Amino acid sequence: MSKGEDIFKKIIAHAKEYGFIFQSSEIYDGLSAVYDYGQNGSALKNNIKEYWWKSMVQFHENIVGIDSAIFMHPTVWKASGHVDAFNDPLIDNKDSQKRYRADVLIEDHMAKLEEKINKEISKAAKKFGEDFDEKMFRQTNPRVQANQEKIDNIRSRFVKDMENEDLQDVKALIEELGIACPISGSKNWTEVRQFNLMFSTQMGSLSEGANQIYLRPETAQGIFVNYLNVQKTGRMKLPFGIAQIGKAFRNEIVARQFIFRMREFEQMEMQFFVRPGQEKEWYEYWKDERVKWHKALGIPDELFRLHDHDKLAHYAKDAADIEFLFPFGFKELEGIHSRTDFDLGAHQEFSGKKLQYFDPETNESYVPYVVETSIGLDRMFLAILSNAYKEETLEDGSQRVVLNIPPMLAPVKAAVLPLTKKDGLPEKAREVMDTLKYDFMCRYEEKDAIGRRYRRQDAIGTPYCITIDHQTLQDNTVTIRERDSMKQERISINDVKQVVLERISYHKKQ
Ligand code: GAP
């Protein structure tokens, strides 16, 4: 097992043990790629949502938020292109009877070649020390160049195949690359077929001729169909944005990697409507803004990278992913897409209703262009969790697991802990709890030795522990312990609220 896989297993086990994430319907052996968030998980998830919502809706005067329904008129999905084009290319292995996404098999193959390149680079970096010039090495080392050329050739052939819907050549590519089924080890593959990812259901009673409807595969369409409602009622002037957080559903075939790829998940999307011709400028602006948003959390810069797409979704003219270094490698965390007037134009055509904007500056009416930012809430959760998980050996040789969650996102901000269960300390601690709990999430705990209680709080990422001891009764002071440094300070009870509020404040990070 690689180091990354080992850590990832530990993170999954930790998430369950400490009430962050449970397998859905676990007592019935679970439902594949569907997860429930527990008491700490739902708190962390809500805090991420708030962080996103505030930075989009509250801090931008020209962005407003909505909450549209999951069920939509079936023609929405015809117009959006999802009925015809929201497909994954699938292939089955005839021996193991397992089904795979053809693009994932090919991407995994390219990732192995990339791993070889990275190994060469780290070997050379070690050998040459400070003088090592990675760019030059990539350009001149024959083994690196050969592998890079292979990757580039595979990618461009696959992209061309998908553009031309040449599924036969996708199969030929898999065979030529010698890709084997990870389970059976065989290369006995079926043809590649397209598979639509939308879940469908029936609305109304079957006897009355029910309508087939879909569970939305993205929240964006709820924004597009409300574009004019919001523009008119909010008297919005271009450029302006509409943001939304909500559930989305996709019948993912390769559903693995925990909450990275789920069948029911949540998206935080913002559609930014602009004058045609200005989309490139806004696309660059939002790429930059979104990277800054991630980095403002204090997560190391090297865990992010921007990847421009060469295989575009059916609606996009330009697209880039912000990728995060998950324990299983760099993967997409957020997408920024230049969607042109594809969606509004299609809804105008299919609905027969005008979706134009009258621009008072140019005296023209037109269908606005759209730049979209779209992030998976669950993926953001996984990025925070996997960056936060640390196993530490302390000075006294003992071990602790700590979650260095950014304080403003932590499920519990402060734990209030009486040193013992007697001598009036619990009563005093309850008083402290009552002064804090209206302003931020606190937890009161009196069971077990104080050291064990600190460890439990470390394990859920509580940034501050406030301990009430015998001195508290004499001089009205408490100790406040900081999670990461484990340093303790003595401060007045009267200052506790202000000190914690200041340190968990969103404001300070921006
Ligand atoms: N409206 C554009 C759109 O939906 P996307 O790249 O398909 O674009 C956007 O999805 C984001 O949604 C992704 O970057 C990812 O974070 C998240 N996402 C997509 N599919 C997901 C899945 N099956 N499970 C969890 N998150 C997913």
Explain the overall architecture:
This protein is an alpha+beta fold and 510 residues long. The chain has helices at residues 3-17, 39-58, 74-79, 82-85, 102-128, 134-140, 142-163, 167-176, 220-224, 227-233, 279-295, 342-351, 377-388, 425-436, 450-460, 470-475, 493-504; strands at residues 21-23, 35-37, 63-66, 87-92, 99-101, 193-196, 200-203, 211-214, 240-249, 264-274, 304-308, 318-326, 329-340, 357-359, 364-366, 369-376, 389-393, 399-403, 414-418, 442-444, 464-468, 477-482, 488-492. The chain has a 7-stranded mixed sheet. A 5-stranded mixed sheet has the order 20-19-21-22-23, with helices on both faces. A hairpin with a 6-residue loop joins strand 4 (87-92) and strand 5. Helix 2 (39-58) crosses helix 13 (377-388). The model has no long low-confidence stretch (mean pLDDT 93). Residues 218, 220, 250, 252, 261-262, 265, 267, 269, 332-335, 372, 374-376, 378-379 line the site of glycyl-adenosine-5'-phosphate.
Q: How many DSSP E strands? A: 23
- The side-by-side strand order for the widest beta sheet comes to 3-9-10-16-13-12-11
Query: Judging by the overall fold, what is the CATH architecture of the largest domain?
Result: 2-Layer Sandwich
What is the level 1 CATH name of the largest domain?
Alpha Beta
Which range does the strand content fall in?
15-25%
List segments where confidence is low: pLDDT < 50 over at least 5 consecutive residues: none
CATH superfamily of the largest domain: Bira Bifunctional Protein, Domain 2
